[in-house]
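Suppose a colleague, Dr. K., hands you the sequence of a protein chain of 383 amino acids and asks what its three-dimensional shape might be. Before reaching for any lab equipment, you can write down a predicted structure in C-alpha cell form. Begin with the sequence itself:
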Amino acid sequence: MKTIRFILLVASILGYSFGAAVAADMIKIGLLAPLTGFAAADGASVKNSVDLAVEKINKAGGLLGKKIELVTYDDRADAKEAVALAQKLIQQDQVVGLVAGSYSMPTRAVAPLFQDEGLPLVAAYAIHPDVTKAGDFNFRNGFLGAVEGRAAAHTAVELLKAKKIALLTSDNDFGRTLAEGFNEYLAKFAKGKAEIVMALTYPMSEKDFKPYLSKIKEVNPDVIFSSGYYFQTGPVLKQARELGMKTQIIGEEGADSPKTLEIAGDAAEGFVIVTNLNRDDQRPFVQEFLKDYETRFKIQPDMVGASAYDAFMILCDGIQRAKSTGGKAVRDAIAATKDYNGLTGVIKGFNKGEVVKEVQVQQVKSGRFRYLGVITDPALITP
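The predicted structure, expressed as C-alpha cells, is then:
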C-alpha cells in the first residue's frame, strides 16, 4: 500500500494522472445527436450507425495505433443545448474533432466554436449554408440545402415531367433553404417547362395538414414538393390520400426514414425522395452495412445514419492520412479528400467544405425505398 501511495504522490507532483495516461492511449471524437425529443428517431439512427463505425475501426486495430473513444451527448436538436455540450466536448473531454449528427440549428450554432478552437467538424446531414460559412474547419457530408432543392426540382420536371408544381414547406431553416434551391432550379433550368401554382408554408409544430392540402387540391398540380422531416411528411402523405388526392408527392432527405413509412403506412407507396443513400447500391460494403444495421437494430437503415457513419469515417480518414490528430493537419487532409468511397456515394471532394457527390432519387416500393434515378449533372450537384 505504501508503494502505491508513493507512486500516486510522485505522479501528482509531476502533474500526471492515471486518467490522463489512459486517455493518451485513446483518440476522443465527439458526437452530438438528438437522442431525445422530437427528433429522437434520427438521433438513434445516428448513434447506432456511428457505433458501428467505431466498432469497425477499433476491431481493425484503431487509428494511429490507438483505440477510438466516442464521446456522445444528446443535444435534443436544440441550439442552446448544443453550444453548452460543444464547450464541454472541447474543454473537458478534449476531443480531436466532432461528428455533428444533428439538425441545422444546433450544428450552425456549434460550428463557430470548433472553428475558433481549430478543430475539424464534419456535419452529417445539416443543410444550412451557415455551417460551412463558419470557417474552413467545418465540412458537410450531406448536401447543402440549395443542392438538394435543385435536385428535387430536377426530379419533378425532368424525371416526373411535371408542369404544374405546388410547394408545401416547413417554415424553418430546413424548409426555406430547400425551397430556395427548388425555385433557383426553375428560374435557371426550367423556364417555360414548369411553374409553381401554389406555395404554402406551415409551422414546425403543425399536425393537421388537411387545410393546406385542400387548397393545393383546388389547383390540381402534377407534383407536390413537400419538404419536411419524417414526422411532418408522414402525416402529409397519409392525409393527402385521406382527401382522395392521387397527386405525386416528392420529398427530400428529411423524410428518408423508416418512420415516414411507419407513419404513412400504405399512403407512402410511390412516394419519391431526393437523398444521398441508394439502397440498391451494389458495392459490397454498402450492402453489408444495410444488412448488418437492420439485423442488429431491427429497423431499416436511413440516410441520417449512413451520413453520420460517413461523417465519422471522413474524420478518421483525415486523421489517418494526416498521421496526426492536430486540428490543422486533419483539416488539410479532409479538404484534400478525393474519390472517397462512402456509404452515401463516392465523394469527389469538398468545395469550400461542401461535399460534391451524386444525388440519389429513391421511390417507395413495397414498403422500402428503392432506386429510381441518380442526378450527376455538375451544374446541379456542385455547391
